[in-house]
Design a protein that fits this description.
alpha/beta, Rossmann fold, UDP-galactose 4-epimerase, domain 1, 2 domains, three-stranded mixed beta sheet, 14 strands, globular
Length: 327
């Protein structure tokens, strides 16, 4: 089928494009390159445009007539969303409305939305299942939850079928070494730890060691980028097969602590790093873990790279390549 991947030059989007191409689909990437990289798009058609450009959106649907759309073009930094909510509501919400309205106009009815577990807010229980209350704590989480609610309305009104996938931490890199995580600035723990080991950063900060967890550091749910993309592809197949909108939580089901990540990185690389001890950050829950039971049952999804050592091994392979190229 023909799939339009919005945000396909970014971290998750570029891995998704690669997987779709390998699965035999025709892929059109739509990206403004504000945070993505043209060289990360490994094939298919490429359109350099923004979701606020209605003419460009109309043109890409008229020209390529996609069967389905996958959406990865959201801003993702929680702290930035608090300081600049306008930026997040404009891009994550308003621009997504532009995309959905163009889909309705061109009668494209299948939409895969890369959402976030931030829609749940402070966890009332863990692991977090789909029934958990949606009380997002920041503009980032609210912008995604607003889109999820719009999707339910568009299903009822226009028959637009969607799958929303919620997860905490995408991690790792393509096992082939062709793609990996590139953010400017980088805010995710695993690449920051590996950059401290490779020498691209001087140190890594640990924010709090007094949480109610086995080692006192926060526990987070890391999902390998390839497993994440496989869930998106399975979701596309499922929604086209059933014509039913769905929502799924994705994760490894256990979670790894900050110290687990640091220890694994030292073990995998055989190298040390400087750790700076800092105070807790406001709003950091002790444990965030998703319950992916429903995705496993209904999609037949099964993470292939669930252990932290494999996730970090693939990320380290990419970091070595990037750090070597930057010298």
């Amino acid at each position: 089928m023909k799939v339009l991947v919005v945000g396909g030059a970014g971290y998750i989007g570029s891995h998704m494009v690669k997987m779709l191409l390998e699965d035999g689909h025709t892929v059109i990437t739509f990206d403004n390159l504000s945070s993505g990289f043209r060289d990360a798009v490994l094939g298919g058609e490429f359109v350099n445009a923004d979701l606020d450009d209605l003419a460009a959106l109309d043109d890409v649907f008229s020209t390529y007539q996609p069967d389905a759309v996958m959406h990865f073009a959201s801003f993702i930094q929680v702290g930035e969303s608090v300081k600049h909510p306008d930026k997040y509501y404009l891009n994550n919400f308003s621009n997504t409305l532009n995309l959905l309205n163009t889909m309705v106009k061109h009668e494209v009815k299948y939409f895969i939305f890369s959402s976030t577990a931030a829609v749940f807010g402070e966890p009332e229980y863990v692991p977090i299942d789909e029934a958990h209350a949606k009380t997002p704590l920041n503009p980032y989480g609210r912008s995604k939850w607003m889109v999820e609610q719009v999707l339910a309305d568009y299903d009822r009104a226009y028959g637009l079928k969607s799958v929303c996938l919620r997860y905490f931490n995408a991690a790792g890199a393509d096992p082939s070494g062709l793609l990996g995580e590139r953010h400017e600035p980088e805010t995710h723990l695993i690449p920051l730890v590996l950059q401290a080991i490779s020498g691209r950063k001087q140190n890594i900060s640990v924010f709090g060691r007094d949480y109610d967890t086995p080692d006192g550091t926060c526990i987070r749910d890391y999902i390998h980028i390839v497993d994440l993309c496989s869930a998106h592809l399975l979701s596309l197949n499922k929604v086209m097969e059933t014509d039913v909108s769905m929502q799924f939580n994705l994760g490894n089901g256990a979670g790894f602590s900050v110290q687990d990540v640091i220890s694994a990185a030292k073990r995998i690389t055989g190298q040390n790093l400087t750790v700076i001890e800092g105070p807790r950050r406001e709003g950091d829950p002790a444990r965030l873990v998703a319950d992916a039971t429903l995705a496993k049952q209904l999609l037949g999804w099964k993470p292939v790279y669930a252990d932290i050592d494999t996730i970090i091994s693939h990320a380290w392979q990419w970091e070595r390549k990037v750090s070597h190229d930057s010298k």
